[in-house]
Amino acid sequence: MHPAWFVSTAVLTSFCALGHAACPEPVSLQLQLSESLICVVMDDAVLKKEQPLLRTWIDRSARIVADYYGQFPAPLVLIRLRGMDGSGVNGGRTTNDGGLMIQMRVGRETSAETLAADWVLVHEMVHLALPEVGRTHDWLAEGLATYVEGIARAQDGNRAIADVWAEDRNSMPKGLPRAGEGGMDQSPSWGRTYWGGALYCLQADIAIREQTANRVGLQTALRAILKETGGYGFESNIGEVLRIGDAATGTHVMYGLYQQIRATPQTPDLELLWTLLGVPTDPLTQPFDDRAPLAAIRIAITAKPTSPAAPGSQAPSVPKN
Ligand SMILES: [Zn+2]
């Protein structure tokens, strides 16, 4: 078969079938999620045989992210899967070089159970929701992906709420500055980038909820940022992005907190924070304290919004303690 003919036929077929967009190359499978098209390319014969399993995994991940943001965060994304020995998913990478693409490796012996609990693809899909704001602010992109992955999965019942808080409690200390380190824009270490960024998200989420009587949180800000910027397919700057988020919540939390941490190392008292939230030392075995001062905020963070949240809407309305 002539390659050029094959490509054009594949493109034509997917265009006719879907009406909106077309996959940029012949694909092994494609998923339509509302207005979004997810094109999946596999280079591995063993993986190609597992298409139903992989479709379920990709569909589940995409729905979790779409539920969190109120829409899937890109009109078209190419997912390129490479096979590897053994079980599991790794090597996730999201790029925008001539089109949005998520690359990852999938073990040829990966079970349905492993795929059902996978976090990597959800993390990568969250990257699609933030515009490119520059390498200096990688901590914002990775922090959001790290923070939102757990909460979005918990909201959809794909991850235990206690497990999300257990990971936050165990891992957020890795995001605190070490001796000699500067502010967030000056400290590209792994710990600061992923968990320092996630800590910024948690602090922002709590502060937004404190200032809005727990009516809205970071999720409302992130939905607005996606809607107004178009997500990772576009470039923006961090100040503009954070101001969009603040306008959506009617606060100055995201930009204000950024000003505090961008060039100055901050070491918040995490033990005090967990106590205020009512998160026990070992969330997997000990009860949460629902009478703690910020317990209502903790509960609202992992609760699924009942409607697209906006200031003044009916979305999770828990009284502030
Ligand atoms: Zn990432």
Describe the overall structure:
The N terminus and C terminus are likely disordered. Helices cover 47% and strands 12% of the residues. It is globular and about 55 Å long. With 321 residues, it is α/β, with parallel strands linked by helices. It has a 5-stranded mixed β-sheet. It binds zinc ion. Zinc ion binds next to helix 5 and helix 6.
In short:
By secondary structure, the chain is an alpha/beta fold.
Name the descriptors.
disordered C terminus, binds zinc ion, 321 residues, 5 strands, globular
Task: Categorize the overall geometry.
Answer: globular
**Distance N terminus to C terminus?**
68 Å
Q: Count of helical segments?
A: 13
Query: Structural class, from helix and strand content?
Result: alpha/beta
List low-pLDDT spans: 1-18, 309-321
Report the average pLDDT across residues.
91
Strand order of the largest sheet: 1-2-3-5-4
Which percent bin holds the helix content?
Answer: 40-55%
Q: Using only CA atoms, what is the Rg?
A: 20 Å
Bound ligands = zinc ion
What's the β-strand tally?
Answer: 5
Provide the succession of SSEs: HEEHHEEEHHHHHHHHHH
Largest sheet: 5 strands, mixed
Percent strand equals 5-15%
Quaternary form:
single chain
